Amino acid sequence: MNEPTTGRGAPVLEVSDLNVTFRGGVKAVRGVSYRLDRGEILGIVGESGSGKSVTSLAVMGLLPEGAEISGSVKLHGRELIGAPEGELTRLRGKSIGMIFQDPLSAFTPVYTIGDQIAEAVRVHQKVGRDVAAERAVELLDLVGIPHPDERAKAFPHQFSGGMRQRAMIAMAIANDPDVLICDEPTTALDVTIQAQVLEVLKTAQRETGASIIMITHDLGVVAGLADRVLVMYAGKPVELGTVDEIYYRPRQPYTMGLLASIPRMDRPTERLIPIEGNPPSPAALPPGCPFAPRCPLKADACDDAEPELERIGTGGRMAACIRAHEIDLKDLRGADVYPVPEPPAGAVERGPREERETVLALDGLVRHYPLMKGAVFKRQVGTVHAVDGISFDVREGETLALVGESGCGKTTTLQQIMQLQAPQGGTVVVLGKDSAKLAKAERKALRRDLQIVFQDPMAALDSRMPVGDILAEPLRAHGHRDGKAVRSRVAELLTLVGLAPEHAERYPQHFSGGQRQRIGIARALALEPKLIVLDEPVSALDVSIQAGVINLLEDLKDRLGLSYLFVAHDLSVVRHIADRVAVMYLGKIAEIGEVDEVYGRPAHPYTRALLSAIPLPDPELERSRTRILLEGDLPSPADPPSGCRFRTRCPKRARLGAEEARRCAEEEPAVIRLAPAADHGAACHYPEDPEDPEGAGGPEDPEDTEAVAAPRP
Amino acid sequence: MRSKLVLKRMLRNPQARYGLLALALLLLLAYIGPLFGPHDWTEKDFLAFMEPPSGDHWWGTTQIGQDVYAVTLRGMQKSIIIGFLVALVSTGLAALVGATAGYLGGWADRALMWVTDLLLVLPSFLIIAIISPRLKGGSWLWFVVLLAVFSWMITSRMVRSMTLSLREREFVLAARYMGIPAWKIILRHVVPNISSLLIIDATLNVSAAIIGEAALSFFGFGIQPPDVSLGTLIADGSAKAIGYPWLFAFPAGLLVLLVLSVNLVGDGLRDALDPGSNQ
Description:
The complex is a heterodimer of chains A (about 725) and B (about 280). Chain A has 24 helices and 24 strands. Chain A is α/β, with parallel strands linked by helices and about 725 residues long. Chain B is elongated and about 75 Å long. The chains are: A alpha/beta (about 725), B mainly alpha (about 280). The interface of A and B includes residues 443, 462 and 474 of A.
């Protein structure tokens, strides 16, 4: 690839025409070329199966046996492909560091974190045991682990996910590598922890001057971090350019579609723009351009040959599309090219919220789990406060989103609702019926109206049943005995969710993730329910597929008059789909209200931090934004802080006087309506002024707190 | 689709291939073989006692003039039927008890597991030895029941622990939230999803049951005369194994071949059904 040299000298890493073929002729990577300059951060973006991880494993020489690799990978001009294993082992961890997605499996459980980092140091440097141990503590300090000298003696399972990922970074930079390969380093983490880890990564890069290859599917993460971006599709790079070029002037239809399909937290749109179809299987690539079957700009010539990366305009800009020059000339955007789906017809105008029927009401719901110890004689040593008194209601035809980080009690809340049993404390009222007072037959009848869609479309469908049987199961369970009627209902359901009736014959594993999620939705719709609980329905899907499923959910809601309880951790999706949102923290509701109110004028410090932690797919905004970084991790729900549960991490508390701060520690705040007119409440003694136009006035602005800090009567 | 794949994977394994072939041949021999033999198994040839193999009596005769070929094949039929029936009953029992205990949890789980543990600590051989002579005159099916009752416990514990993890899977939750009764969930969602374990277990149980039957019959506790099984034949022949080897060698050899081929098939099935095995 003849990319212009940027004048910063020779590249640190140069990959040219890299191909990886697995046994059975599966071409996972086809002709990847890029160069990485000193201190540069290159983002590699693509959906699952696009070959982005395989590329980096090939660079490290870590592919399993049986994979054929061709092409060239040069580190400081030295060829790595075909190099003897001994030489690669010396380079790995020394010149190239790697950070994996799952930090738990990257550490050996039987050695302490400090020992493992020290070992990484001693493998590549001739230093004594004590020097290495000191260096390990230094590194842990560098990545922001509090009390590094003590924590170095802890075992991996004693670290939280975010801490482990920090330790992983510490280990990766232990030998001042020249290249750091990060494979989805924050995907398994919560947003506030993700924000912390990304900061650490930036620090690590500053300290070591390493170049970083950042592999991710999250366009927001790349926007704030990378200098240049490489977009991959079906094992092939389809576009390469600086981060601004890729985000503001994409020239390849796939990149354009990808950017257009992301729900935006900062500017909500009416309809999301999905990319139709699915990525091709690497074992059966279409002739010509692999994206052609999904491309709205497809011409006849697209099927003839696969386009190579070609220079667009001046500079290092490259795109693989025969119409890229045309796109460049007309300056087309994703929204211009891709058809915007029609809004659903026949949406019923509903009356004001107060007049509508309440389909679900929770009042002071409590769920505690006993913490047991001992094998033979079990005794209770504590209580996990999973859900600790939450109240909300869902009215007919509305979507309430329940958001929060892992461990905040969202899933427990769902289970309590779905079980339709008497809760430990408080009440669950579904369609006017109290779950505690249901007879067995009533409970079963109520299940018709209350359905659930699960997160993982793979696990939610029994792989041993054909789709037709899966959809017929709820029908048969509720008394539809007539085989013909059931079959026609199944066909109707499949059509409703955008699949074909003949799909009933196939098994779930023959479908892609998005299609499987549609089957899950069809099953939930089978009995014409009134309320559907959606448990992270799109978080396991790729962005381009996700948009289609969200649109489907919106259509169905309007057409069938459904109400949704939508549980999610992705705040951008929530902003798009929800009418109201409830933010949970450690088993309590921190803030609840209309979406525009909560997102536009967040009153609880936690909501503010959460909103500011979300990376936006907009490089310029990302650069200008100041983040509210929360300290530390979520406290254990077995031992929640007294008073306000957020006080241990609250950025606002530092700015309160001693007297005011004491109130946070002693008195538990209840959800208080902020303004009589607005549907917006927060559980904070000192909420941010909702009228404050500067929504994210964080700790960097000490002025604005004075007015709010006055204790309320 | 899946069963085809499993069959393909299994046939790629040479051991399983030979096991399957041998098993098929043995079954053919046991059921088709007697049709071609010159004598019936109940026939007694008073002109030939303890004759070595010859043209008329292919595998020789016993001391009361029975044709060893006919009698051995008859015994093998019985052994095979008992083996398969015991395997079917014990695996079915294991699946039902294990899945029910694991799925329902609570007191049902405790009660069922208590029974399982109790049966595990009982000396099964001794109990069968004590009970089976009392069933003399009754059907040999009682013997099947006895063998099955003492061979399902370990599988059942395995099934239970697999059910415990299946119970939390989302498709089971989905079924429960749909209002489907527990027994239907167990039969329709839990048991089919542990079917690979059950298939392997049933196959290996066949050989265990055949050996168990042979051992009990050898000591006279199993199949009672005049009926024969491989076990009783081996017991009869063992005393004269040196002088009249055909009395012992044919039933014993067939028993070894039968168990070996079933085990090969079982191992092949396990490799074929386990996606983690590398073939």
